[in-house]
Structure formats: C-alpha cells, structure tokens
Amino acid sequence: MMLVQAKTDALTARSGALTVSGSGWLGAARRDAVARLAAMGLPTKRDEYWRYTDPASLTAATPTPAALFDAGDEAPAFDGIDAVKLVFVDGVFDPAQSDDPALAGVEITHLSQAEGVDIHWARDVYGVLETRGQTPVQRPLATLNTAYATQGFLIRATAKAAKPVSFLYQNRSTTSDALLHHCIKLEHGAELTLLESGPAAARITAVMEVEVADGARFHHIRSQGRDHERRAATHVFSRVGAGALFKSFTLTANGCLTRNEQIVELVGNDGVAHVAGAAVGDGIFHHDDTVFMTHEGQRCESRQVFKKVLMNGAVGVFQGKILVKQGAQKTDGYQISQSLLLDGDSQFLAKPELEIYADDVKCSHGSTSGAIDDTALFYLQSRGVPKRMAQSLLVLAFLAEAIGEIEDEAIAEDIRSRLEGWLQRHEH
Amino acid sequence: MLNIKNLHVKLEEEDKVILNGVDLSIGAGEVHAIMGPNGSGKSTLSYVLAGREGYTVTDGSALLEGEELLELEPEARAAAGLFLAFQYPVEIPGVGNMTFLRTAVNAQRKARGEEELSAGEFLKIVRAKAKTLQIDADMLKRPVNVGFSGGEKKRNEILQMAMLEPKMCILDETDSGLDVDAMKLVAEGVNALRDAGRSFLVITHYQRLLDHIKPDFVHIMAAGRIIKSGGPELALEVENNGYADLLAEAE
Questions:
Q1: What residues make up the domain containing B239?
Q2: Where in this chain does the record put each ABC transporter domain (chain B) (predicted)?
Q3: What digits encode the pLDDT tens for the residues B12-63?
Q4: Total count of domains within chain B
Q5: Apex CA A92: angle with CA A164 and CA A195, to 5°?
Q6: B160 touches chain A (CB under 8 A)
Q7: Any idea what the CATH number is for the domain that residue B171 is in?
Q8: CB pairs under 8 A between A and B
Q9: Chain B contact present for A382, CB below 8 A
Q10: DSSP letter assigned to residue A402
C-alpha cells in the first residue's frame, strides 16, 4: 500500500536532524524502529486516530518555541515525598542535580550506559512493548521515540522498593525538544512507585514501557508541568501479568497541547489495571487522553477514570477503548470520561469504545459533559460557603473519583492541593 | 427578628407572579407556622428569603434584625443568621459531610470576624450534636446526603442547623417523607434549639408536625398572600375542615 505522501513528508521533516546511535541490542532495536517508522510515516490530522487532535506541531521539523514557566511560590510537585530524585534539564539527564540512583531491590541504569552492555531484561522490553502496541492502531510518534531517543532510564525492581523513584523535569530553553524513553520491569512480587513531574521541554515526545510480572505491583503518578505553551505526546505501554497490578494517574494543569496515550495489555489471569487522569484547562488548552485497554487473561479488572475541567475555550478529548479478547472470561471493565464545562466556550469530545469477543464479561462505560450543579451550589451558599469556595469544592468533588485512584494518601493530598491552588488562580 | 413587608415575587424567566404581597412579622424567640394548599407560594417564600436564583422581587422588603436580606448573596444571608432547612436536601457526591459542615461553620465564623474552629474543637462539637440526633459516624463520613434515607436527610438538615446556630430558622416541609418516629426525632432536634434569641418559621401541610413543634402563631397562605393569621387553633381548623372554607372567606 502506498503511504500517503503527507505522512512521508512529515517523517522526513521530523527526523531530518535526528540520527540513530548505539551498537549492540539497543542499536538494533533503534534501527528496527527506523524501518518500522518508514513503513508508517507520521500522523496527519486526516488520520482517524488524530481526528480530534491536530498532530502538526508534534510532527513539525522543529518545536514551536514555548515561553518558560515560572511556578511562583508553588512548591514543586511531590516535594514532600521522600524519593530517589532523577533530574532532567531540557530532556537531558543532569547527574549533578540528581540523587545517587541507589535503591535496595531496584537497578537504575541510564540509557547511555546500556548500549553495548547486555542488559538481558531490557532487550525484551525496549521497543518490544511499543511494537506490540502498534496493532490494531499505529502510534508512529512512539516508534519515532524508540528509534531516536537517547535519554531515559532502564529500571528493574526485584523487590518491594522502600521509596519511590521520581523523575523531575526542568525546562530552561524555549526551543527544547525532548525525546524520553524509559523502560521499567517489575519482577515477580516486586513493587515500585514511579513519580514524574515538571515541565520537560517546549516539545516532549515520551515513551514508557512497563512490564509488570506476575504478582508485581506498579504505581505511576504523574504531574505534568504547569507550563502553558508546551506540546506533549506521551505513551505508556504496559503489559500486566497474572495477579499483577498496574496503576497510572496523571494530573494535567495547563499546556497548549497534550496527548497522553495509555496502552495496556492484561495478559495474565486476575490482573488489575487502572488508568486515571484529572485535567484542568483555562483558555488555550487542548488535552487528549487516548486509552487502549486489552483483556487477554481471565478475571481481570480494568478501570479508566478520566475527568476534565474546562473553561474559556479549553478543549478536552477522550478516546478510550476496552478490547476483550476471546477467552478473557469474567472480565470486569469500567470506563468513565466526564467533563465539567465551566462556560459555553469550552468543549469535550469523547469516543468511548467497547469491543468484546468473550461471552461472560461485565463491561460498562459512560461519558458526560455538564456544568456545575446550580442546586448544589445554592445549597452550599445557603450554608454560608462563599460562592467561589463552593465552586471549588464542587470542582474538586467532580475530580474526586480520578484522584481516588491514587493509593498513597500523601501523594493524593499533594495532587489535591495542587488542584486547589490552580482553582484559586483561575477564577470562573 | 424577621420583618417581611408587601413582598411581591415573580419567576425570572416567565411572567408568573408567585408572591403577591406577603406581610409577616416574626418576633425574637417566636415560632410561626405557615400552612396552605399546594402552589400557594410557601416554598417560594423560603427560597426567596434564602436567595435562590430564578426569582425576581418586584416589590417589598425582608429585614432580618433590620438588615435587608434581599440585597445580600445567599452566603451573606446565612452569615447574618438565616437558615433554610430544605424540603429536598441536596446530594453532593464527592464532598464529605464532615468537610461540608466544617467549611460552612468556619466560613460563617470568618464572615462574622470570629476565630475559625480547629479540627479538634469542631470534631468534639459535631460528635456531641450528631449523637442526640442519632446520626452515626458513618453518616458524617459519607458524601453529603448521598445514599441517605429520607429521614437521614432531614436529620442531617437539623444537624447543620444545630452546628450553625442561626437566629432565624425556616423549615420547609421538614415533615414530608418522614414516618412518625423520624418526625418526632426531628421535632425534638428543633425543640432543643428553641430559645429566646432564635425564631422559627415552619412551613407544613399538616397539623401533625405542629403537635411536636408547637407554634405561637399560624398563618394560612393562598395565591401568594397570607389570608389569615391566628393561634395554634387555626391549624386544627385546617386539619378538620380543609382549606375550602378559609379560601371562600378570604374572597
């Protein structure tokens, strides 16, 4: 099949200044990605999968310059959480600002150190989960990342980690263009929490591949930067084993374009996968959550909980799918996507999908858009709660189900207080 | 305490007059009851006093201790001492009952220039008051009114009233949807709050509630006006004869 010229042109432009590096298994994985990418090209807005989000700025040769962001007196996300901190500046690891990457039961290796070394587990993850995630829908930006990213960490947990690993992103250049690729492997029975926060770059193309072995538990909590002008495409590919748990929560406040893709495969029996997000946007804000949840094992539970608060023309998108394969009996799948539109200018576009080939499953999905409940607002005011405080309470209540997906109460409280701060700064 | 004069109200979005010259004066410590047929404007009166949107006041005034209520935001009316126990208490998923109560109490204290209550002080008070209304710890933890039975919702209204200690309490059909035991419990909660500085306006369809909350005055409302006022015997008259005679008399 001939590739649409526009897709090839986009790829030529976007990859023009990029070079494939590395030898050994990593170099081979990258070269494989280059070949796969050539057969795909890069997405255009004519692609069905990009119908609600224009990828032009993500595929352009150079990033659109983005003003640096001053967070004022707000503390950085997860500031009070004890963690092994690994800092990236403009998408490049900065050892000087980082902690010694030592944590009992956890091996942490930078991608640049992995080349030529046979890290046997990583060769089964790097580019492998991403490749699996290309069917039935192509995700060329992830393949571009596999081919050209040189920054990121390989993390392998063999036991329950005593504290989280935290990636802190800092942005110092208005034209930074970050390609970040992390691989995480949790061995049988291991448990790890991974935090991500901060403005990474003017443009971010990120991939995280997560292999959760049988009985292992992985928690991912992300607070995307409050920078207004960044453009981000992120992908989390995960494969969840028998009796294993995968949980990922993302807070997005601001950002002119954010596309967060979650591609989850529940391959073992009795696995659990929850993906959730709370997004708040005011003005030039386009936020897209795209989720593909595949049930292969039996008796697995999946939840997708995505909530967006939109005002002054902000746009929210949700494309979420549950695919229940033949034989995935007793599947329990749940999907909810909701938006709270604080004015008439904002919009929410939702495409929930179910595709089920097993006959004994429970799957539910719902999608709503609505305004603040005037009756509840009056009830609160009639008890003496000032209108703005009442509105904030109701907005936080709307987001509560998504935040409730975070298991660690201290981390959940951190997310909650950041949302309260945001609501105070944005009058509605 | 509360002085309503010549209050005229219409719906904001259509030309429908609901209140057509209400006059009502409630002294400190008094309990007044308003009865009347469906659609006579009883609930509208309570909403307009509390400041709900959707109504336009075309004439008249409502003074709470000399202060014009009708010009204030709902939260300012509450801080001034007004409380409306809703006929249909509102469910607020995601907001814990305890958080709601504490936010309300402290917002009012702040508006009046008083110290806010600490978490410890608040907890002590709310637990004591909840106990007398047979509200258990679980009800305090759950989201506001979500999954509450009819009786639990009404008891929760009275708990809010007890915590906020308003001067002027309006009870809008607090007896609706309650069985006899639940009504007694709610009435006891109200009676415990009666004192010389606190007044009540009880809106009801039935004399039954007034057996438990004994009013000093009873008013009959019809077509947006108070057509007759009297003592408790007026409620009995309604109970025995219905509204027909009173309405005919007023015409």
A1: 2-90+166-250
A2: 2-248
A3: 998 899 999 999 999 999 999 999 988 899 999 999 999 999 999 999 999 9
A4: 1
A5: 20
A6: yes
A7: 3.40.50.300
A8: 82
A9: yes
A10: H
